[in-house]
Design a protein that fits this description.
Length: 188
């Protein structure tokens, strides 16, 4: 599997493009900003789906670049896409319109998209609906886990208690390559 990392926006959110060399489609995770850059990095491949690790504005700002493409988000975070106060967009001055997500994510759900099998892990703490996506020995953690740190828990929907449980859960993935929402990737 090819993993293309595209840091976008003022907060350098990691957008991930997952694809198989023999296919003409791809999965896009967290298209936070700079839609033209993300589309260019698709390199002619078509987005089969957009997966969101959570609903904050810096992970969703380029959703408009994918009309008609299924968008997956956990139901707890789905209201963030249309509520700029919940997504923190209002506080950052981001007026980008986001469409409603088309498909819900759930704990343990297995997705087969663009020839790639991903498992959903519900990891609340940063937000109530934060999720990670496990693909083989790779795990896309959004803002749940960073290199040596974890996401904020002081924003609406955040919980230090839930974050501790989610981090404990991710520590069971010893030896996995973690791809966070910001910063560089690392081995858990």
């Amino acid at each position: 599997m090819n993993i293309d990392i595209v840091p976008v926006g003022a907060l350098q959110t990691n957008c991930y493009i997952l694809s198989l060399p023999e296919r003409d489609d791809a999965v896009v995770i967290d298209p936070g900003a700079e839609p033209e850059r993300i589309l260019a990095r698709l390199g002619g491949k078509k987005a089969a789906a957009v997966l969101l690790t959570h609903g904050h504005y810096d992970h969703t700002g380029a959703l408009g670049a994918f009309p008609g493409v299924p968008v997956y988000i956990h139901p707890h975070d789905a209201p963030m896409l249309t509520n700029p106060q919940l997504s923190m967009a209002a506080y950052a001055g981001d007026r980008t319109k986001r469409d409603v997500a088309t498909l819900p994510l759930a704990e343990g759900q297995v997705l087969k998209l663009a020839g790639i099998v991903l498992q959903v892990l519900h990891t609340p703490g940063h937000t109530r609906g934060s999720v990670c996506f496990s693909v083989g020995t790779d795990i896309f953690t959004g803002d749940t886990l960073f290199d040596g740190d974890y996401g904020r828990t002081d924003l609406p929907g955040g919980s230090e208690r839930d974050m501790r449980e989610s981090i404990r859960r991710l520590m069971a993935f010893t030896g996995h390559h973690a791809y966070p929402g910001h910063d560089s990737n690392m081995i858990i």
